[in-house]
Write a structure and sequence with these properties.
heterodimer; A: 105 residues; mainly alpha; Arc Repressor Mutant, subunit A; 2 strands; 44% helix; B: 420 residues; alpha/beta; FAD/NAD(P)-binding domain; 2 domains; 5-stranded parallel β-sheet; 26 strands; 26% strand
């Protein structure tokens, strides 16, 4: 576990960079989080995915897999990889301040 | 008053649930009906051995109907959809079956059509899956003829049935080519979307050593976007390529097709949102789910369906009697992993505890996470237990629904949040 400062607040994260407590997340942390993932230019399409991840987590208790994202977010998988090149589910989960998606068992 | 129980699917979960419920039919006033599209019940764990000539295809199938208790009605028909609000199942011929309580046990289906190019010119020629009989038999011929080149195993995405089977396939392929003196001429590659050999960290470490020892190349974080069957290569969404001579694919999985036709029944992959502990669906109080059809964070494996059955039946009976649901499933899974040369290792885990070293089911049992001849015998013996104990709905001696902790080297217990 490690602590970083985002938008002036101390946030606890797991060793692999996911929020320990998703309720600490606020939208103004997103630009900084995205930058750390190598995403300089945040577009509306990024926001569609980030907000979708967030709402899925809040209703289902876990973030969606890439495939579920592609089927239900309105953003096709190919575009998801263009937006989040290092893996849409993981990167978007980090930026949306939610735990690592369980998806794969 | 008679209560109509309708079970969709006569595979592992549906059959054992019907047979367990049948014992209570008279006392609880149950009329039990099972629906499936054909009369062929395949012992799916056996498919892994077919490509290597270690199992005969025609020894793996039996009649679905004959595995059911004689008090159970069997309807051989395709299901078109379920009308959740009307408590009714509509069949493909337009007729319908009403229920008081529905059990969804229709498993997972393969969806190769969802991957671009996969069903192209190479399908059945040099692209196969061993997850169905046709593919397993085709692969047997292809492997028998292979004397050099690249054999690539690719898992397209999770979830899949029996998540260890693809690894077992590479271990068996290593032994197969070694015994034929061809191992130096055949390169074996395991390409997975995961960041390691397996989903669970402790087991993943062990398994990745085993891949190393066998000179099997592990390609991680590979998300297949497309298969180019003319150029014979996998192409990932981020542009990496893996060439092959023979591709063994584990296609995407989804729930049964009728689930997608049924408003309000399934999620985006056609699995049923289900309480991971009670096995009651989140869709309607009178719908319960068992096995691969359930959207729960457990492995899609026969052992899971077996353990779920012991929890599901008392919960169904309690629900019918308007009592609180007494039993809670812990996510217990128990898998033999065939490692080649007549050895296997065993893993045992649940929602909260990873596969650990030790012995199962207690300190003097089968070794966990270590390969041994004893585990291989266990795996072979299981086929008989499956037909004669598990499907008829008997308990298997010593093997309980709840994961045993005795005999395990428990260092830490990680809490995984079971999806709500």
């Amino acid at each position: 576990m490690s602590t970083i400062t985002l938008a002036g607040k101390d946030v606890a994260r797991t060793d692999d960079g996911f929020f320990e407590d998703p309720s600490q997340w606020t939208e103004d942390m997103v630009p900084e989080l995205a930058k750390a993932e190598g995403i300089e230019q945040l577009t509306d399409r990024h926001w569609v995915v980030i907000r979708f991840m967030r709402s899925e987590y809040l209703t289902k208790g876990t973030g969606p897999s890439v495939r579920a994202l592609g089927k239900s977010s309105g953003v096709p998988i190919k575009e998801l990889y263009e937006l989040f090149p290092k893996g849409p589910a993981k990167q978007a989960a980090k930026i949306a301040g939610i735990p690592k998606p369980i998806g794969c068992i | 008053m008679t209560k109509r129980i309708v079970i969709l699917g006569a595979g592992t979960g549906g059959t054992l649930t019907a047979n367990r419920l049948a014992r209570h039919a008279e006392q609880a006033g149950l009329e039990i009906t099972v629906i499936d599209k054909d009369d062929e019940h395949i012992y799916q764990p056996g498919l892994l051995f077919v490509p290597f000539g270690m199992a005969e295809a025609d020894h793996l199938a039996k009649s679905r109907r004959q595995q059911l208790h004689r008090g159970v009605n069997y309807i051989e028909a395709g299901i078109d959809h379920v009308e959740v609000d009307k408590n009714r199942v509509v069949l493909e011929d337009g007729s319908s079956v009403d229920y008081d309580l529905l059990v969804v046990a229709s498993g997972a289906t393969l969806r190769p059509e969802e991957t671009e190019g996969l069903l192209g010119s190479g399908w059945g020629r040099d692209v196969f899956t061993f997850y169905n009989m046709e593919g397993a038999v085709g692969l047997q011929k292809a492997l028998a003829a292979m004397d050099h080149g690249r054999l690539v195993l690719n898992v397209i995405d999770m979830p899949i049935k029996c998540p260890v089977a693809p690894l077992e396939f590479t271990f068996l392929a290593d032994a197969f080519f070694e015994s034929r003196g061809l191992r130096d001429k055949v390169e074996i590659v395991y390409a997975t979307p995961l960041d390691g050999a397996f989903t669970k960290p402790e087991a993943s470490k062990h398994l990745s050593h085993m891949l190393d020892d066998r000179r099997i190349n592990l390609v991680t974080n590979f998300n297949t976007g497309e298969v180019d069957e003319e150029a014979k290569k996998l192409i990932s969404y981020d542009g990496q390529e893996v060439p092959y001579d023979i591709l063994v694919t584990i296609p995407l999985h989804g729930g049964a097709a009728y689930v997608g036709n049924s408003p309000k029944l399934g999620d985006e992959l056609d699995f049923i949102p289900t309480d991971p502990h009670t096995l009651q669906s989140k869709v309607a109080d009178n719908i319960f789910v068992i096995g691969d059809a359930a959207g729960v964070p457990a492995s899609k494996a026969g052992s899971v369906a077996h353990f779920e059955g012991e929890v599901l039946v008392p919960n169904i009976l309690a629900w019918l009697a308007k009592e609180p649901l007494p039993e809670s499933f812990d996510g217990h899974a128990n898998c033999f992993i065939e490692t080649g040369h007549h050895k296997a290792l065993l893993i045992d885990f649940n929602y909260e505890t990873e596969p650990l070293e030790g012995h199962f089911p207690g300190p003097f049992g089968l070794p966990l996470l270590k390969d041994s001849y004893l585990n291989h015998l266990g795996k072979l013996a299981f086929q008989q237990l499956y037909w004669h104990l598990l499907l008829p709905g008997h308990d298997i001696p010593m093997v309980k629904a709840q994961m045993p902790k005795a005999g395990k080297h428990i260092l830490e217990v990680k809490h995984v949040k079971a999806g709500k």
